[in-house]
Amino acid sequence: MNAFTIKDLENLSGIKAHTIRIWEQRYSFLKPQRTETNIRYYSNDELKMILNVALLNKYGFKVSHINKMNLLEMEEKVFSLSPGQAQQERVVNQLIQAMVDLDMDVFERVLEAYISSVGIEKTITQIIFSFLERIGILWLTNHINPAQEHLVTNIIRQKLISGIENAPPTIVREKLIVLFLPENEYHELGLLFIYYLLKRNGIKVLYLGANVPLKDVEYIVKLKKPDALYCHLTSVASNFNFARFLQQMQTRMPDVALTISGPLTQSYKKKIPENILFKRSLSEVVEYIVTL
Known about the structure:
The chain is an alpha/beta fold and 292 residues long. It has 14 helices and seven strands. A five-stranded parallel sheet has the order 4-3-5-6-7, with helices on both faces. A two-stranded antiparallel ribbon has the order 1-2. The protein is globular, with a radius of gyration of 21 Å. The protein starts with 5 loop residues before the first helix and ends with a helix. The relative contact order is 0.08. The model has no long low-confidence stretch (mean pLDDT 89).
């Protein structure tokens, strides 16, 4: 069983921790346990409950009314939500729930059903990216079991690679982008998603993959002279120094712009070197790629 903090619930559900505490006081659907130091923690079932409550509340159901529903009634109401955005959020919630339950059959079945319904491109942009964005916080805080991470990663990786292989470019541009992750960063799903977006927009890509030493990136830059470099940073080793990495990139490859997206950009507060760009949201990433 996973143990989730109230901050995990906030990040995964979109409900502020303050509101979650109020709900705990007023209603019966959340009953957190506490550590010896009196810190709240939540089980898999409570995470799934808050995801359902948050979704129903967002689309018009009063929390007092939701509190009177049994689990079956709640699930029926979730599946009855009709707006397109609500359905997308429901699918993402299903993936999160299947992940915490280690039910990979359900996880893959949910993904395959959505792909069959709308195609791989919309599945990537509407579902996979949102899923990765929401669970990225669990990777950062180590509140996900490595087995869960590996199983989920492998399934999504297969879907992303399939999407990359079958993505026809709308136009072909004379641009070359090198994609890589620095040493001790192994979470390549976000980078594969960027690969898909670049290829879909007709941009040539050299994909170096995860855990790449800077000397290897430097060698490729000198040999191929790319127009830009790109990283998507999700979670790195504890000894990774983000500021030093940026400074090394600027010093060793000053003539090539580096763009970075991913969860780590959200928390970085220091000055960003001139030849480095941060893209902190999907809309910023898409805008960047379109204007290349």
